[in-house]
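Subject: Sanity check before I submit

Could someone independently write out the structure tokens for this chain? I want to compare against mine line by line before I put it in a report. The sequence has 190 residues.
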Amino acid sequence: MQTLQESFKPVITAGKEQILPQLKLEYFGPDESGNKPIQEDLVCTVCNTLGISVGSATMDPVSGEIKPICEDCENKAFAKRYEYKDLIAAINRRRRIYDTHYLFVELLAKDYEKLGEFTKDDWEDGELEKLFLYAQKIWSKLPESEVIKLEMEPDQGKLENKLKEIIESKNCMVALTVFMAMDLDENPEF
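---
Independent answer below. Compare away.
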């Protein structure tokens, strides 16, 4: 059985590294112009570029300071780490890892919005982050083999249906309603 880390390596189809269609996201994707959020005040630890779209971060072992890495440098590192020959295929695979999870969060958010009869514009500070935390708890309990299958599903409609099945099978909406009402400062173990 393939591990999650092994699944990051390129999939060769017809002699080329596989490129899956980009998922369309409403909450976490690029803006309407295709631009990713830029943090004007951050400097990439690897290339020293100021004003970056954050790709990842590392912690300085001495100071404990979080050091940001830009999306471009992280994409190149991912391609090298998992032996991609085609940088576009590596970028696509790395994006899919995150976007599959983000799509899961968006589907949870949309279902939760229906319960409260509000829209994504109505989220208050911290609520979307709280929802993201809840989604992460559910996601981390999924078997690696299931996560791999989800990430590799090329059809967004089929992927959304599979994610909705997970939401329904785990009774996520009942638990999410309770979770969103919790004060996490008083319940840090959740």
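---
OP: Matches mine. For the report I'm noting this point. The radius of gyration is 18 Å.
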